[in-house]
Amino acid sequence: MRIGLYPGTFDPVTNGHIDIIERACRLVDRLVIGIAINRDKGPMFSLEERVAMVEAECAALSDRTGVEIVAHPFENLLVDCAHDVGATIIIRGLRAVADFEYEYQMVGMNRVLDASIETVFLMAAAENQAIASRLVKEIARLGGDVSRFVPPAVERALRARLDGR
To answer: How does pLDDT run across 41-95, given as a tens digit for each residue?
Structure first.
């Protein structure tokens, strides 16, 4: 069984994330969405909320593709998380050259830590290349329309959070 790990903060999950998840399903039999706890980033949504959003958005996709998709919070090294879930493939999404430079360094370090784990890069679809969770939150904070960047349920969660509900 090919197990892939797609790590990120997913604060919140965006259409870009969903696109990468859907395409990663073509490569693996089981896809673990590693939701980084990363207290340094000061996420807008709690870990529990981020896990729930990912699970909700991936349920229909899992049914449609036949690939088991599970959310797995983690706070350790990425290669250790991969070991924990049995993943031999790390999936990473790329939007621009700047992403590649950072990811290139990460792959190098991860290969030193465990050369048996492969990293696979998936380029963001053209319509998703500008989407970043950080920018989505900023647009939403300033009252902009984020409906083209996130699933409807995530948009509602953003609005509710920003409206203080």
So the answer is: 789 999 999 999 999 999 999 999 999 999 999 999 999 999 999 999 999 999 8
Q: Which residues are catalytic?
A: 17, 41, 95, 133
- Per-residue model confidence (pLDDT) at position 38: 76
Residues 23-50 as b or e (16 or more Cβ within 10 Å = b): ebbeebebbbbbbbeeeeeebbbebeeb
Q: Copy the structure tokens of residue 51.
A: 């896990």
Question: 161 lies in a domain?
Answer: no
Total domain count for the chain?
A: 1
Task: Tell me the pLDDT of the chain averaged across its residues.
Answer: 94
Burial of 17 (0-12, 13-18, 19+ CB in 10 A): buried
